[in-house]
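Lesson 9: reading folded outputs for more than one chain in a single document. The general rule is that every protein is listed as its sequence immediately followed by its structure tokens, and records are never interleaved. Here is the first one.
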Amino acid sequence: MGAILALDFGSKRLGVAVSDRGRDYVFSRPTLQRTTLEADLRALGQIILHESCDLLVVGLPLNADGSEGPMAQAARQFAAALSASSGIVSEMVDERYTSIEADESLKARFPRDTRKRRSLRDQVAASLILKTFLEHGPYRASP
């Protein structure tokens, strides 16, 4: 069993978190600024190798009612591209409200430093996505 790489997918940034190989602990990693798909996949491929990951978890940004919009479709396409380039299976996790939860957690730690909160939000959201996966498993659409 290897580590898990989790991503908080966004059009400008990718929040990154990894588990340990035993999948007991979650560690945030620096947020990646998106550039091109090829560069993003290359940077993530390096993390996958360095962290010995054998599973990918990507946050699925569902609408509040559970439906999938354009960002959810983009996240699915990105997960498929990353799986294809890395040869590792990817799972999706419902990430509704993780950014809000991340903001609330960061407000408690940095009540007056909005710049600090903004810089850490994607990392914290990725950690929450990975914790959700470890506790509840992958997202499965309702029939």
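And here is the second record, again sequence then tokens.
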Amino acid sequence: MVPLIIAPTGGHLGAGQDALAVQRTFANARSVEFDALLLAGAPVPGADAYGARDAKAGEPSGPGAAIDPRVLLMVSEAFRHGKAIGGWGGVETALQAAGITDAAAGVVLAGDGVSVLEQVTQLLGEHRVWDRFPAAV
């Protein structure tokens, strides 16, 4: 696996020896680049995040208003593409805003990133979460 860290802005997360370099930002990352997503919380909209561009749409409201819209787009695309999604730290809010239930196939939530990573790694063995799409004739 080659993990990529995505954050609101470039630079580093953390400080000192433990700082992690950001490889993508919310503005330049798309779900097609990834086989799975691990979310560490539900990020608030960044200063450069734009909501609806239609003046009649008004200000965003509801559960998604407090989540960066670029993250919601990435999560909803990954879900529709059958990719595994894992999270911790209040990620349920972002999933709900994207229209995804935490009981959906291939969605892994836990209290810490280690157990989420282990479960998502197992899901990656199947390449996609095909159980998310029931067969129909």
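What the second record shows: The chain has one domain: 32-131.
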